[in-house]
Amino acid sequence: MSPRTPELDDEVASKTEDEVAEPPLYRVLLHNDDYTTMEFVVEVLIFVFNKSAEQAAQIMLNVHHYGIGVCGTFPYAIAESKVDTVLRLAQDKGFPLKCTMEKE
After folding, report:
1. What is the number of structural domains in the chain?
2. Residues 17-28: b if buried by 16+ CB within 10 A, e if exposed
3. Is position 12 within any domain?
4. Average pLDDT over residues 92-98
5. Opening angle at CA 90, ends 31 and 43, nearest 5
6. Is residue 13 situated within a structural domain?
7. Which end of the chain is more exposed for a tag (fewer CB within 10 A), N or C?
8. What is the predicted pLDDT for the residue at 20?
9. % of the chain beyond a pLDDT of 90
10. Considering the domain boundaries, does residue 72 fall inside one?
11. Half-sphere exposure of residue 41, counting CA atoms within 13 Å on the CB side?
């Protein structure tokens, strides 16, 4: 065993008091319009948001009856990507479907 040298025996304080916060979540919303078909909305919900046919139909009816429907809640980057995907798919099919995101 080596002798102790006081100049190298300094204590290292390593308390971590910072709290790690979860990233904020964002709701992805579909908005009703008079032109986008209900079938297309259901397809988007199944394809982009991995909803079952039953879940997709319920969200589509919320959009139809209440003007807006929540597709899911995600971290910012994922929500933004899903909004972009929905808008691109709608544009490719010629539908004016509006999809937005809002902080939860």
Report:
1. 1
2. eeeeeeeeebbb
3. no
4. 97
5. 80
6. no
7. N
8. 86
9. 78
10. yes
11. 30
Give the CATH number of the domain where residue 60 resides. 3.30.1390.10
pTM for the complete prediction? 0.79
Which residue stretches of 1-104 are H helix?
38-49, 53-66, 76-93
Can you tell me the distance from the alpha carbon of 58 to that of 14, in angstroms, rounded to the nearest whole number?
52
Order of all β-strands in the sheet with 68-75: 68-75, 25-31, 98-103
- The CB-based long-range contact list for 46-55 (8 Å cut-off, 24+ gap) reads 47/89, 48/82, 48/85, 48/86, 48/89, 49/82
The boundaries of the domain holding residue 79 are: 36-104
Nearest alpha carbon to residue 90 among 51, 30, 36: 36
Query: Is residue 3 very low, low, confident or very high in pLDDT (cuts 50, 70, 90)?
Result: low
- Tokens 């790690």 sit on residue: 20
